Every structure is written in C-alpha cells, then in structure tokens.
Amino acid sequence: MTRKQRRMTMIASAGAVLALSAGLVAYALRDSIVFFYGPTEIVEKGLTPGTRLRLGGLVGEGSVIRSPGQKVSFTITDAKTTVTVNYTGLLPDLFREGQGVVTEGVLEAPGRFRADSVLAKHDENYMPREVADALKKQGHWQPGDAKAGADAATPAAPAK
C-alpha cells in the first residue's frame, strides 16, 4: 500500500467514525431537540415525573396566584389540556394571563410542573411560532389576535 493510499484510508476511516458518532448523538437527542412541549403533548407522550423539559402555551385566565417569598403558581394551557406551574422568582415584565409563555423546568407529576425559568413573549403582537402552531392544531387560533414569527416585524395599530 502506498503512502497516499494509507492516508486516504485513514481519512475515510476517520470520516466514517465521525459520521457514526454524529448519527448516534442525533438519535440520542431526538426528543430533547424540541424547543418546547405543549400540555397535550406531555400527556400524549406519557413523560415520567422528573423529566427536564420546556413547556409552552398560554397562561390560563384567572390562574395566577402569588404567595410570599416570590412564589407564583399559574396554569399553562393549549385549550385542550392544562398544566399547573409552580415558580419561585421574579416573573418577566410582560408576563400576563392569556399571553404566550415558555417555561423550563421539571415535570413533578402528571399535570404539575416546577419551573426554573419563565420566558414571556417579547411584545404585544408576537407569539412564538410553536405556540401559534399548537393553537392552530387545536383549533383555537384566532387570526388577528397575535402574529407569529416573521409577521411580528409589522406593528399592529394601537388598540383604542
């Protein structure tokens, strides 16, 4: 075998090992790559308590309960399923009932979630594309209420 053939064999072997390892990593992370799960998806997938994930949806109307020590309890819904979220800390300024949020934390039990962080939508007219898609899937999307993704760049007329 010539020197050039050995070098090409070594490069091909390294490329095959790299492709195999990338494939194994992608396979192992196939469920973790999702930006967030909706409440219905959590129930359908049968995720076990202790699973770390992101949960997204709309904050339930009348569900925000504030307790001493910056403890907050609220529900996240996709209009089909509701999950109760417990969070300790300061909420974003834009956090409101009926608005889209994404929380990150641990599923404590079916229907209960302990959040480490809460992310609210960035302005009055924006909803994360994934939340809008989930609402469209459930049949609860109301065009004109909020704009998703790239449509958020165009401001809506102020409410009077």
UniProtKB/TrEMBL annotation:
Region (Disordered) location: 135-160
Protein residues bound to heme: 122, 126
Superkingdom, natural source: Bacteria
Transmembrane segments: none
Residues exposed to the Extracellular side: 29-160
Bilayer topology annotation: Single-pass type II membrane protein
Main location (coarse class): membrane
Family label: Belongs to the CcmE/CycJ family.
Free-text function comment from the UniProt entry: Heme chaperone required for the biogenesis of c-type cytochromes. Transiently binds heme delivered by CcmC and transfers the heme to apo-cytochromes in a process facilitated by CcmF and CcmH.
InterPro entries per the UniProt record, alphabetical: CcmE, CcmE-like_sf, NA-bd_OB-fold
Name this polypeptide is given: Cytochrome c-type biogenesis protein CcmE
Chain ranges on the Cytoplasmic side, renumbered to this chain: 1-7
Localization, UniProt: Cell membrane; Membrane
Transcription regulation keyword on record: no
Biased amino acid composition, Low complexity: 144-160
Source organism: Bosea rubneri
Pfam families associated with the record: CcmE
